[in-house]
Structure formats: C-alpha cells, structure tokens
Amino acid sequence: MATRMKLKLKTVFVLYFMVSLMGLVYALMQLGQRCDCTEHNMPKDRTISRLRGELHRFQEQIRKSEATKQPQKQPAKPTIFVITPTYARLVQKAELTRLSQTFLNVPQLHWIVVEDSPHKTPLVTDLLVKSGLTYTHLHMPTAKDRKLQEGDPSWLKPRGVEQRNEGLRWLREDRRAQAGGDNQQGVVYFADDDNTYSLQIFEEMRSTQRVSVWPVGLVGGMKYERPVVEGGKVVRFHTGWRPSRPFPMDMAGFAVSLKLVLANQEACFDGNAPMGFLESSLLQGLVTMDELEPKADNCSKVLVWHTRTEKPKMKREEAVQAQGLGSDRAVEV
Fold first, then answer.
1. Coil vs helix vs strand at 305
2. Tens digits of per-residue pLDDT, 2-55?
3. HSE value, Cβ hemisphere, 13 Å, CA-based, for 118
4. How far from each other are the two terminal CA atoms of the chain, in whole angstroms?
5. Of 61, 81, 129, 181, which has the fewest Cβ atoms less than 10 A away?
6. How would you label 206-221 residue by residue, b for 16+ Cβ within 10 Å and e otherwise?
7. Crossing angle for the helix pair 122-130 and 92-103, nearest 10 degrees?
8. What percent of the chain is predicted at pLDDT more than 90?
9. 45-80 burial, b if ≥16 CB within 10 A, otherwise e?
10. What is the rounded CA–CA span in Å between residue 26 and residue 12?
11. What DSSP assignment string belongs to 92-137?
12. pTM, whole model, 2 decimals?
C-alpha cells in the first residue's frame, strides 16, 4: 500500500514538472513573437502621418517664400577717388606696394596714379596690373623749371602739382562721360605715396558733403597739425608756421566731395602759389572755413601721418659697380 502511494506521488510530481516546463518553454517562445497591435496603433499612426504632411507643406511654403523674396538693397557706398602723384626713385616700388596693400582693405576705392613722366613706366604699369585694385594710370611730366634739383630742400618748390591737376582733369572728363545720376557721388582725396594711412580715415571721409578735415601727424616740424573745433565748427588751426594762411593744412588733411569738384571746373592747384599755400590755392575756390566738416572725433584723433622713407645710401653699390660687380640691372627693386 505504501509503495503504491509513493509511485502515485512520484507520477504526479513528474507530470506537474513536465506541464510546468512546457508552460515555461511556451512562454519563452512567445517573447520572441511580434504583437499584432495594428488595431491599437492605427489612430496614432494616422496622427503622425498627418503631422508629417503638414510639416512638409509648411517647409515648402517657406522655401517658396524665400525664393520669391527680393533681396534688400543696401545703399551703395560713395566711391573714394584717390589721386596719387609718383615719380621714379629707388623706393618708388616699395612705397607704391605698401600704399596699394593699404587700399586693398578699403571698399569702393578707385586709385588714380599719375606718374611724373613723359610716358607710363613698366614698373608702375606692372604694379597696378597686379594690385587687385580698381585704378586709372596716367602720366604728366613736371616742367623743367618747376623740378627740384639734386640737393634742393623739399620745400623749395611745390611737388606733384601737374600730376594732381591731371588727376582732376581726368576725373571731370570721366564723370562727364558716365551716364546716370550716380556719376557725381564720391569723394576726392590726395594721397602721397610716402604717407601712412589708418583705414579709419577712409571711412571718416566717405560722408564728405563739401570739404572734410582732420589732423595730420608728424608734419610741419610739429607732432601734429590740426583744425581746432569749437561747437562743431572749425575756428582756427593748430600749426607752427604761418597760421594766418587761408587753409594752413597738409595735403593729407582734407577730402573734397566729387560733386563740388565737378561743379567747380576751374578749381585746381596753383603751381605758382607761395610756399605753404598750395592747399589753399585749391580750397579757397571751393569752401569757407565755416563750411569745413571736422572728422576724426572733432579733429582730436590722428589717423594719417606725413611719413617719409629715408633715401637709401648706395655707397657700397657704387663701389662694386666701379669694379664691374654691381647688382643686376634686370632685377627690379
């Protein structure tokens, strides 16, 4: 009887174990199956699809709007016409190279280079072609009786007179030939090839209405010369030599509106003007002191310097040339 009971219990236990194991295997198999939840997910899928469609339509509308939108025109900056007289000398290429690379950083600038020569020289021609600037290349020789001789002090005779006047002549003829109402918009500035210019001075002068003025450093035996401003008006000039001159300023210290230059066809520099009166010879016919427009923070900042490159000493070059060992003349300096 006891043995029979043990067999029954053992059988029941085995059956229970087998049924449990089969249930576990079935459950594990079900874990790897995908749930058929289509009916539950359909409303959510439809909502996502609708939102995606609306987003796509919205993006298309933005693209079409941007495609048809007219770009907003920025007002064009007035062109600065820079007239630079230059003459052949050992440092000419170095001076013009430095100046041209300053001008490359000035937007809307037209460089008018006028050689003191009976013809355009290859050196200046090649430099301008490679400069990357908008330029006009002119030439006008200085009359022999006006030229400085070897050993003459630089102040004895005015330099660059014929060349600046030639630049003004070309500018007037060119503007007359240009069609449209913008041909009178611009500023004229006289930049010598040996001076040093801050980029800021060009943006200061760009808004010139008649004649704008500012200080010049290292000029006239002074740390600086400048117009003295009171109440926004120029009332006198800080200068060490003949302050009674009509406009005791350096050439680098003013700019003239193109419109004013074109309206005064005869205005030019007088080569016969007394020493120190060259600038006044032009400005007297264009403006009064009361009409001057002070720039550079009411003429309190120096943004241009009347620098001069030292004349190179060539004693050793001359010595080796005498021995037939001089530098190759084909190498341009």
1. strand
2. 555 554 555 545 455 554 655 554 555 555 555 555 555 556 667 777 777 777
3. 2
4. 129
5. 181
6. bebeebbbbbbbbbbe
7. 20
8. 63
9. eeeeeeeeeeeeeeeeeeeeeeeeeeeeeeeeebbb
10. 21
11. HHHHHHHHHHHHTTSSSEEEEEEESSSS--HHHHHHHHHS-SEEEE
12. 0.77
- How deeply is 203 buried, as exposed, middle or buried, from its count of CB atoms within 10 A (0-12, 13-18, 19+)? middle
DSSP 291: G
Catalytic residues: 279
Q: Cα separation of 319 and 312, whole Å? A: 15
Poorest-confidence range of 40-44, 120-124, 197-201, 289-293? 40-44
Residue 169 one-letter amino acid: R
Structure-token pair, residue 31:
């874990």
And the tokens for 210?
């008649």
- Please give the Cα distance from 224 to 210 (Å, whole number): 24
Beta strands 134-139 and 109-115 are: parallel
What one-letter code names the amino acid at 59? Q
Query: In whole angstroms, how far apart are CA 177 and each of 41, 57, 102?
Result: 77, 53, 29
Say how far apart CA 137 and CA 57 lie, in whole Å: 58
Which two tokens mark 230? 């009171």
DSSP per residue, 259-318 = HHHHH-TT----TTSPTT-HHHHHHTTT--GGG-EE-HHHHTS--EE---PPPPP-HHHH
**Alpha-carbon span 91 to 269, nearest angstrom:** 26
- Answer for the pair 258, 267: CB distance below 8 angstroms, yes or no: no
Q: How far apart are CA 264 and CA 256, in angstroms?
A: 11
Query: β-strand 254-257 against 196-197: which pairing, if any?
Result: unpaired
